Amino acid sequence: MASVAQPPTPIAGKGRDSVRSWPLGDQIAYGVSWGTGLLLCVIAGAIVLFMLFKGLSYLRLSLLFSSPSPSLDQSQSGGFLDPIEGTLLLTTIGTLIAAPIGISIGSWLSEHARPRWLARMVESGVEMIAGVPSIVLAIFAILVFSKPVFAFLSETSSGGSVFARSFINAGLMMSLIALPLIVGATREALNQVPAHVREASYALGHTKATTLRRVLLPASRPGIATGIVLGMGRIIGDTAIVLIVLGQTARLEPAGGTPVLSLLRGTGSTLTSYVYENSPAGEGHAPQKAYAAAFVLLMMVLAINAIAMRLSRGAGEAVQWIR
Amino acid sequence: MSADPATQHGRRRGSPRSQERRAELTLGAISVCVLVFIGLLVAIVFTEGWPSFAHNGYYQWFLPGGDVETQLRAIFSGPTEAAHYVYHLRAWPILWDTILVTGGAVAIGLPFSIFAAIFIAELSPLPLRRILNPVVRLLAAVPSVVYGLIGILAVAPWIEHNFISQADKHSVQAIVQLTGPNLTLATLILAVMICPIMIALIASALATVPRSWVEGSEALGANRWRTTSKVSLRTVRPAIVAATVLATGRALGESIMIEMVGGSRPFAPNLADGKIFFFEPIQTLAATILANFEGLSTVPLGQTLYAMAGVLLLSCALLSLAGWAIRRLMLGRYGIGV
Fold it and tell me: What is the pTM of this model?
């Protein structure tokens, strides 16, 4: 997503061009414009303050460190330790898959892009992936990963049907959500590296590949990092894929005996699915816990975005440093 | 990234030229995987969903007729032998809901976003602008499930108490229940969700308008609002189209929030109902898929859901195609690409 760029400095001086002297229609439009701007602040403020109020009044430290358990009595149903772990695990998997692929595609589009028509197709392909609703990706994943070929990615029931729901499957789909952001950030960052840096590297006898790996990618690291962090934010916030492809078990349920692999093949939940399940729309009706979890989720997403903003500020400096 | 000096000089693995070629081919191959994936996605979703269209008749699928919820339940609980699968579905209510919610959200959000973008890019005093940029990013970053939670727990009861009278509820009791989660709530929250995307894109486009054009207009004596609306805004029309297309696509694909605050019932609100129209429950295409995903393994219901996913994919594709065509036409006329 494009960030809001710094606009040019205000256009007119005050004196002669006072708003009072404008035609009435212009004055009204000017007022409406102010109104929308202030309304934006009010909406954002209301959301943050409301979640802060609800979150702080329902969040207990014990909720963060106890696992959920199925119980109708809300004092017995535990906290959301497992969903937090699930969110972290899923984000890690998704990012680890998306980052190398995204950087490769971004570098190819920016540095090689031959033949031209193929590059254009890949470009619109990435745009199309960004446009595919996550719910479609989710049910597509169920269809594909329930084929026997992909049995190693999830649990297989005794009847021989593949469950298709696991952390690794959900992570694969999540990587597609983060991919367009990483590709875009990589391209943008590489384009910002001035041409004479490339020329200097070629003049030293480096090949294009070496230049990319040794000069261009290190130089555009902050920009790429921004894209990756934004992608992580997208993964943390997605719910449809989690609900459908992660198997909807409240706790992390490893499949099989191997330590790490079993976790990846197993099912679980994340904060988003926990909030959904505990809202009136889900099965367990526990609005207080939903608020508490949503507060934690919101804080995570806002922290991620703050990091991204910080990094993108660093990107400008890094490029300057090269110049 | 290895720091092996041998690879650095490209000696160990053949000449620099062949290494170069290999690097380009590898990166290119990874990139082409994107196209392969898109092709597979479209092909598999449509193949899987085809029986649903085929059994209903290709255009009857899209027509009104009967209650979708009952039809989906019948599909789910029908016979399990392949020869006797039930497929009967008239999906118009879902499509109508999708059109209403998406159209409504864009109709509210677009003018709002244009004004807000103008405010951010041109009119606001600097301190306020410093607040507004993070505010827009914040609104874009809030996960849809949080929007849904606030909607269903905080706004829905308020709407139910203040806008829906007992008389309204009784008048349609036999057909549909009027509650807090409804068409209006879903549309409003969806508008809040898609506005940041449009605002960010339009505002950053406004910042690229050539200074000389703006100064020219100022020099001719136009005031700030006239300059903005007649020069800057016209210049960025292609960007407005792009932003609208992107936001509409996002709105079409939104499932969680709509499922939470839309009433979760595939009902077609009737314009003839007057005031009640606004408070009738809805369920869009994406939300219907989400509401029924637990029946994915039941073959006919699964195929019906994949048919819906296909329709969703198709409408997203048509949307961006239309946006592309409009932008192309505009670029020819206005000359500035954004």
Answer: 0.90
